[in-house]
Amino acid sequence: MDNVTQAIRAAQQMWVKSRSLTLRCELAKKFAGEVAANAHALHEAVTAPQRSGFRETVSAELMPLADAAKWLARSAVKVLADRKVTGPGRPLFQRGVRSTVCREPLGVVLVIGTWNYPIFLVGVQILQAVVAGNSVLVKPAKGCERVTRLMVEMLVRSGMPEDLCLVLGEEPECAALAISQGVDLIVLTGSSATGRRVLRQAAETLTPSIMELSGCDAVIVLESANLKRVVDALLFGLRLNGGATCMAPRRVFVPQSLVDEFHDLMSARLAEVPDTVVDSATIERVLSLISGQRYRILDESGESSYSPQTQDAGARLRSGRPLVFSNVASDFPLGESDVFAPVLMTSGYQNVEAATSACNLCKYGLTAAVFGKETLARQVASQLSVGTVVINDLIAPTADPRLPFGGTRESGFGVTRGVEGLLQMTRPKVIAVNRAGWLPHLDPPQDRDAALLEGILQWCHAGSFRKAFGGLIQAFKAVSNQSKTRSGKKDS
Q1: How far apart are CA 408 and CA 423, in angstroms?
Q2: Nearest alpha carbon to residue 432 among 81, 103, 104, 101
Q3: Beta strands in 62-208 (DSSP E)
Q4: Which residue has better confidence, 34 or 296?
Q5: Cβ–Cβ < 8 Å for 176, 110
Q6: What 8-state DSSP symbol labels residue 416?
Q7: CA-to-CA distance for 479 and 438, rounded, in angstroms?
Q8: Vertex 102, ends 99 and 108: CA angle to 5°?
Q9: Residue from 116, 165, 124 nearest 144 by CA
Q10: 60: which DSSP letter?
Q11: 177 Cβ contact partners less than 8 Å away, ≥ 6 residues apart
Q12: Stretch 11-17: mean pLDDT, rounded?
C-alpha cells in the first residue's frame, strides 16, 4: 500500500473541483437504484453464517441503505449549504461584520468495517463520506472484502471515480498502515477493545475518530406494558441476524409483579426463534463468563432448576437455540459483556428508579427500549444514558436515515447517519468580512477604555434596567472625560 493515502488525497481534491454537491447528490440517487438492481448479488456476497436468508438481507441491510442514499440525494445540499450569520443577535462591536459558515470535506476518510452488517453500516458510511466530498479507504472485516468491493463497483457505476474509494485488505495491519500514512477521519464499527487499539494509534497523529462500538442493551418493561408486544419484540431481537446485532436486547427489567406472567409468555414462544449459527469462540466466551454463577435457563418447557451445569447453556448455543437467563442478579457477568449471540437476561425490579439505575450502571450505552404508556415511558427514556431510546418497539426505528446513530461510554462516541452524521464528514470554516468604516479595536489603548468597556458591558448584559442604565451613563462619562482631558492638553 505504497503512498496510497497521498494518491487518494489527490483524487479527492479533483473530485471536489469537478463535481458540485448537487452532482454528488445525483450519485446517491443512482446508487439507490444500484442497490435495488443488485439485491441478490449483494446478499450472495454476505458470508456471515448467522444470516437467515434473502428476506433478512433485504429488510435489515438493503432497504435501510437505499433509504439512506435517497435521503442524501434529497437533503445533502440543504444540510451542507453555506450558512450566513447576520442580523439580530450580533454583538455590539460586530455590527459591520458579515460571516458565512462553510462546510468543507475533511479529505481522506478511513472506514473500518464490521462483519455483522457489512452492507448497510459500511455502505452508509462510504456514501456519506463521498457525498460530503471526501475520498475513502475501506478496511473490510474478515470475510467481507467481496461484498465491499461489489458496493464500490456500484458506486463507480453511479458516477464515482474509480480512484476515489479504495478497498484495503482485511488484515488489521492494513488499517494501521493507512492511519500511519495520514488520514483525516477514522470511522470504526467494532468492539470496544478494537476501538481502544485504533484510538491509541490515532492519538499519535491527533486524527479525529467516530467510534460506533458494541452494546449490551437494556429493555425496561413498565407495569402498563403490553406483555405480548414485549415478548414479540424480544423474539424479534433474538432472531434478527442470529442475535449478532449491537442493538439486540440483552438485559430485560420486568416489574416484580409481572415476572411470572412474563416468563410464562416468553417460554411458551421461544420455539418461534429459528436455530442459528453461533461461532465456537463466542460460545466459549459465554461459558467462561457464567462459570461458577447461579442462574436459571428459561426454555420452551419452563425454567430449569437453579445452577444447571454450564454445559447445559453450551448445549443450547451449540444447537443454535436462544439462551435466556431468568431472574439473574444485577451483577451477572453477561450484563457487562458485548456478546453477539441470541442471549438474553431477565431481572425483576421493585421500582422504576432501580431499573433505570441498573441500566445506566452498565459500561455500555448504545440503545435502550422502554415498553409501557407513553407519558411515563418518555420520563424513563429521559433518564437513560444511551444514544437512542425506542419506546414500544426495538431496533427498527433506528434505521430511519434522518436520525443520527451513536452511543455513550464504551459504546463509543460521535455519530453516523442523519444530518449530524453527514456534518461529521466535514469541517466548518468561517469566512468573516468586516464592512465597517471604523474599527475601534484597532485604535491605540486609551485611559478611558476600562471604564468605557465596563459601562458597555453593564448596558448590554446587566440583569436589571437600573444597572443597564447605570452602565450607559458610565460609558458616556468615560467618553466625556477623555474628551475633556484631550481639550485640556491642547489648551496647555
Answers
A1: 19
A2: 101
A3: 83-85, 97-105, 108-112, 135-139, 165-167, 185-189
A4: 34
A5: no
A6: B
A7: 16
A8: 150
A9: 116
A10: I
A11: 1
A12: 91
